[in-house]
Amino acid sequence: MSNSDILKIGCKEFKNRLFTGTGKFASLELISKMLEVSQSEMITVALRRVDKSSSAGNVLDYIPDGVQLLPNTSGARTAEEAVRIARIAREAGCGDFVKIEVIKDQKWLMPDNEETLKATRILAKEGFIVLPYVSPDITLARKLEDAGAAAVMPLGSPIGSHQGLQTASLIKMLIETCQLPIIVDAGIGRPSHAAAAMEMGADAVLVNTAISASADPAEIGLAFKKAVEAGRSAYLIEMGEKQEYASASSPLTGFLYND
Amino acid sequence: MEITINGKTENINFTTIKEIVESKKLDKSGLVIEHNGTIIKKKNWSEYELQDGDKLELLSFVGGG
After folding, report:
1. How many C-beta atoms lie closer than 10 Å to residue A56's C-beta?
2. What angle, rounded to 10 degrees, do the helices at A79-89 and A113-125 form?
3. Which of A38, A232, B3, B52 has its CA 20 to 30 A from that of A217?
4. Which residues of chain A lie closer than 8 angstroms to B30, CB-CB?
5. Using CA of residue A63, residue A64, residue A67, residue A69, what is the dihedral sign?
């Protein structure tokens, strides 16, 4: 894609529409390698209590300076808890971006849309660049827009499930009606899912488990980068419509036989 | 004195955050500390005198999606 196809979220511009996550990597070094190869420009991190030293190291040390940190509020079960995590993350030097993740359901990890909206209202007023992770819903999206969200992050399918775009028709509705960038996040299991999301008109995708749980996160990260670019080109450039009947691609004259 | 650390009540003999961190042998790089709801920067860990009933959160950023 040309350098002019920039995605603007808040005050930041992104050339690469593949966002990634740091969860479930077998080692922190793999995160660095994946970022180097995929050139992803924004990556999520989580905040947790620590009661003993980890020999693994500090995840932030494996994220290069130019990559935007996107702390998530995972662990929060209410808007209040999400707001607290966001404030701590910012105070700790993570910057203004925050992914709001408010989840009570432990089976499918479905987000609590109502609490997410509440947290968005509070944090947007405090100057955060809010990326809310939600179940796709156009009425909610309108409210998130009014609340000051910087984007909407609809799930494709449950986190870590690799099921792809189970919510495709709902995501299409969001793409058609919502003015904010739409970043499909959760459940993307294959590069083809990412390409499909981009081809549909999503502005970006966020992929974590499909990359980190693969046998070679760097190579798969690269595969996702290419898939995102492919899908984006297919979305931007006019292509032929689906037809019921065949339309010959070789000339219908000059055949090497007589009728 | 009794303070709450990461949600659990603990009896401690120390008076500063720095001493608690060292006693728990925590890796200081990447450690984020909240004392009674306020983040305390590393350079100030020796300054704050803890009081009975204080709440400490010892946090760090980890991998997450």
Report:
1. 14
2. 40
3. A232
4. 58-61
5. positive
Nearest-Å Rg of the Cα atoms of chain A is: 20
> Which residue on chain A is closest to B64 by alpha carbon?
A23
Query: Touching check for B29 and chain A: CB below 8 Å?
Result: yes
Residue-wise DSSP of A132-151: EEE---HHHHHHHHHHT-S-
Residue pair B33/B39 in contact (Cβ under 8 Å)? The answer is yes
Residue type, position A74, single letter: S
**Alpha-carbon gap, residue A242 to A240, rounded angstroms:** 7
Phi-psi region of A113 (alpha: psi -120 to 50; beta: other; left: phi over 0): alpha
What ipTM was reported for this prediction? Answer: 0.92
Q: What CA–CA distance (Å, rounded) separates A87 from A172?
A: 33
pLDDT tens digits, residue range A82-112? 999 999 999 998 999 999 999 999 999 999 9
Q: Across chain B, what does the average pLDDT equal?
A: 91
Per-residue pLDDT reduced to its tens digit, A29-46: 999 999 999 999 999 999
